[in-house]
Write a structure and sequence with these properties.
This protein has six helices and no strands. The protein has about 150 residues and is mainly α. It has one domain. α5 runs antiparallel to α6. The chain is flat. About 15% of the residues are buried.
Length: about 150
């Protein structure tokens, strides 16, 4: 996978023309990647009993949904000033739940699959409250970027 990444970077850097057939196949695979990952996550979550919730999950969710936005906000204040739109976008991105790529990487390396799927699922549920709160704080002016 690392070799393929380097190869792709070299092809992009040197503007190597890609044959139309290969390009359309890659576009097709690119379009199918997210739905297949979501399907795999859904199957893993559906087949997983919630009685065996990993002990570290509340800490992971708290770090991702509370500590991460606070750290980003502190860095925005410390390293600013930034345009308010960019600062708000950075804070909103930091407030997003754990992404699906956590599950995809866990599945790729066949380790920590169930906790990763639980983190994505529970993190998404909890982010309904935390992300909405951050959006509301930005919208009402309670969070101001200098």
């Amino acid at each position: 996978m690392i070799v393929a990444s380097y190869f792709g970077a070299l092809v992009a850097f040197f503007h190597v023309p890609i044959p139309v057939g290969v390009d359309s196949m890659l576009q097709f695979l690119q379009s199918a990647a997210a739905p297949v990952a979501l399907f795999a996550l859904g199957v893993t979550v559906a087949l997983r009993p919630f009685e065996r919730m990993p002990w570290e999950l509340p800490g992971i969710i708290a770090i991702k949904l509370i500590a991460h936005p606070l750290i980003v906000f502190g860095l925005l204040i410390a390293l600013g000033p930034f345009p308010p739109q960019w600062a708000a976008a950075a804070l909103l991105l930091a407030s997003l739940p754990p992404a699906l790529n956590v599950f995809v990487i866990a599945r790729q390396y066949d380790t920590w699959i169930e906790p990763a799927s639980a983190a994505v699922l529970i993190g998404t549920f909890v982010s309904v409250v935390t992300l909405t709160s951050v959006m509301w704080l930005i919208r009402t002016g309670a969070i101001v970027f200098p």
